[in-house]
Amino acid sequence: MPCLSQGSVTRVKDVRRKVRRAQTIAPFGVGGILDLQGESFVAADTRSWGRHGDVVDSPRLARKLKVNGFRSAAVIPSGKAQYVARRGPVYVRFPRWLFCPKCRLMTYWSADSEQKDKPPRCGRCSGTPQLAPMRFIQVCRNGHMSDVDWRRWAHSRPENHEQRQCQIRTLKFIATPDSSGLDALKVSCITCEAQRTLEGIGHKNGLKQTGARCSGNQPWQTSEDEHDDCEESPRALQRGASNVYFPIVHSAIEIPAPVSVDEDARKVMEHSLWPGLIEAGESPVTEPIVKHLAENCDVSVEFVEALRQRNSRPDDSATSPMEHADEDLSIAEWSAFTSPESEKNSTSEFRVRQIGLGELKDDPNSLKLLRQSVDRVVVADRIREVRTLEGFSRYESEGRERLISVNPVSRAQWLPAVESYGEGIFVSFDENSIRKWESSPKILQWVSGIEENLEASFQVDRLREKTGPRLLPRFVMLHTLAHQFIRQLSFDSGYNAASLRERIYARSHPEAGDYAQQAGIFIYTAAGDSEGTLGGLVRQGTPPYLMETMVRLLESAQWCSQDPLCADSTGRSLANLNRAACHACALLPETCCEIGNTLLDRTLLIGDGNVEGFFRAVVQAAFEESADAVDAP
User: Fold this and answer.
1) Facing residues of 69 across strands?
2) Would you say 416 and 29 are in contact if contact means Cβ atoms under 8 Å apart?
3) What is the distance, to the nearest Å, from the Cα of residue 390 to the centroid of all Cα atoms in its chain?
């Protein structure tokens, strides 16, 4: 488990807590708030890591994000923290305004007051109760975060001249039994008796009306850092609110290099300077980098230059780099799963087997219909996934223009990451069947409503990176199928649902491109060590278990305890991005879904009176077979 030190970036008290390595990426990565046994911390940027951390290798992901590499938080064995010199990521106590739950006095805590392995405590009360962090914090749309100026808030409605001039920060946080709302909580000045309840603090202009301004910094930044002159109006949010932190996490399945890439080209493209060469374009630094790569990789300058020209993108202005990068990853992974050569080129990090569907003559009609729609099944006995944190945003997830880097001071040369090993099941579906189904006017009209909600959503930029420039019916259908698959596998494979993840291969591509159409899902599990393959998931991908599992999940998708409210829904979740999907039937733990439990609709799986579900015939045949079995003597 990584060990965290609490304090400022430049001056760190050796106060240690523990957090799992995977949590340093999400949800407690750089900028994320960690609640730990009544204490509240925020993760500092990667400058606090220093030279610490274990190197994580992922050339494809590094090229995508244009960095030199990745590091994972150093792991300190349990019980050995005090004997180990290495330290983990720095987490700064935040908010710094604390209050005593007994005497209600508020304290502005400083790093100098920290004591090793002890939480902040009130020295005035008997029993020295632990101080609690204030519930509200201040954020802005540019991603800055700081404490609410509680002195200003308490004195924002003065009744006399003394209260107007009071600059004392001796405050009290009072809770009254008058009501259960925010009007029962108030901040009071002990000196001049000015006070104000918390009613209205969360309104859009609640802090602006008091004259509060954005601090232009993050809680871990010191006076030595250059602060932004932010003109955005700050807003008060609760520490645990979902819009306080939007981490931008990327992941990649490590696959063997394409056979078409020779050894010399692979050596050059996996060099740490290669991303910088592609980014440099035709700048003056290009020639020195080309020469350096040629010398280090023992190839000719002409070879490196030709490789650079082949991989350069002269029309980058028309299409964003992120769009190219995402397509590169999805296309390579799709090719690795669908190519027959992958089984021969298996490595210690990627071992796959193509499995037959196990068709028998006496199979029921439902299984026969299901096999007609399935193209291939591949079981992955061994995979390695790398997940990395590029940055985060706050208040609203508005895309890359408001992205806060993990190193906001200078360009990040490396990113925090975590690698994990596991197993999985890949299922692709017949392209002709998919294309015929999604070309139906009723299907297109149905999905166009979801497309309109997506375009109006504050999550549109983040979701477009997964769906592509246009939301295809196959994406919503396959995404819903993946959720139902995970729910069913949690019963059949021995893994709990939270330990399974999905990857959807169904995004649309620009019409001018020459990318192949994809229609498949990959359900996999990844553990934090090298023993993440228990075999239960692979077993469910072999005949006859897979087809039986898929029939059962389709039958369960037919019913929801929230029906008819769920089935007849015209919009659920944030921004109405879901249709017939709720916690009782389709939603999963956040660790499972790559797009935050959005763009789900059981109707596209099983159909209703107006919309033909892709698997409608399979479900109908299964019900008829069940009825015949009941009626049989």
Assistant:
1) 414
2) yes
3) 10
Give the residue from 554, 601, 597 showing the smallest Cα distance to 447.
601
Give the pLDDT score at 313: 45
Per DSSP, helices labelled H in 166-273 are 263-269
Alpha-carbon distance 540 to 547, whole Å? 9
Q: Are 9 and 45 in contact (CB under 8 A)?
A: yes
Q: How many residues does the chain have?
A: 633
Burial of 349: CB neighbours in 10 Å, binned 0-12, 13-18, 19+: middle
Compute how many other C-beta atoms are within 10 angstroms of the C-beta atom of residue 125. 13
- To which H or E segment does residue 215 belong? none
Q: CB-hemisphere CA count at 13 Å for 498?
A: 2
- Provide DSSP, 448-490: HHHHHHHHHSTTHHHHHHHH-SS--HHHHHHHHHHHHHHHHHH
SS3 state of residue 389: strand
The C-alpha atoms of residue 389 and residue 405 are separated, in whole angstroms, by: 9
Phi-psi label, residue 602: left if phi above 0, alpha if psi -120 to 50, beta otherwise: alpha
User: CB neighbours (10 Å) of residue 303?
Assistant: 16
Beta carbons of 96 and 109 less than 8 angstroms apart: yes
For helices 441-456 and 460-467, the axis angle rounded to 10 degrees is 140
Give pLDDT, residue 550: 93
Two tokens, residue 6: 């609490």
DSSP symbol at 407? S
Residue 117's pLDDT is 77
For the chain, residues with pLDDT lower than 50 are 1, 3, 7-12, 259-260, 313-326, 530-531
pTM of the model: 0.83
Which of 192, 263, 196, 206 shows the shortest CA–CA distance to 235? 206
The pLDDT, as a whole number, for residue 528 is: 55
Q: Which amino acid is at 628?
A: D
Backbone angles phi, psi at 270, to 5 degrees: -95, 0
**Interior CA angle at 407 toward 403 and 410, to 5°?**
100
> Could you give the CA distance from residue 313 to residue 297 in angstroms, rounded to a whole number?
23
Residues facing 133 on adjacent strands:
98
| 484, 550 contact by CB (below 8 A) | no
Kindly report the backbone phi and psi dihedral angles of residue 538, in degrees, each rounded to the nearest multiple of 5, phi listed first. Answer: -60, -40
Looking at residue 121, what DSSP letter applies? B
Instruction: Please give the backbone phi and psi of residue 23, each rounded to the nearest 5 degrees, phi first.
Output: -75, -15
Taking the CB of residue 324, how many other CB atoms lie within 10 A of it?
14
Cα separation, 197 vs 199, in Å, equals 5
Coarse DSSP helix, strand, coil percentages of the chain, rounded to the nearest 5 percent: 35, 20, 45
Q: Which residues, 6 or more positions from 140, have their beta carbon under 8 angstroms from its beta carbon?
A: 214, 230, 232, 233, 234, 235, 394, 395
Point out which residues pair with 93 in neighbouring strands.
41
The residue type found at 281 is G
Per-residue DSSP letter, 187: E
Report phi then psi at 350, rounded to 5. Answer: -150, 100
Residue type, 416: P
Query: Distance between CA 394 and CA 138 in Å, rounded?
Result: 11
Residue 262's Cβ-count burial label (10 Å; 0-12, 13-18, 19+) is exposed
Rounded to whole angstroms, the Cα distance separating 571 from 452 reads 11
Helix, strand counts (H, E) of the chain: 18, 23
Question: Quick one: pLDDT at residue 10?
Answer: 42
Count of C-beta atoms within a 10 Å radius of residue 257: 18
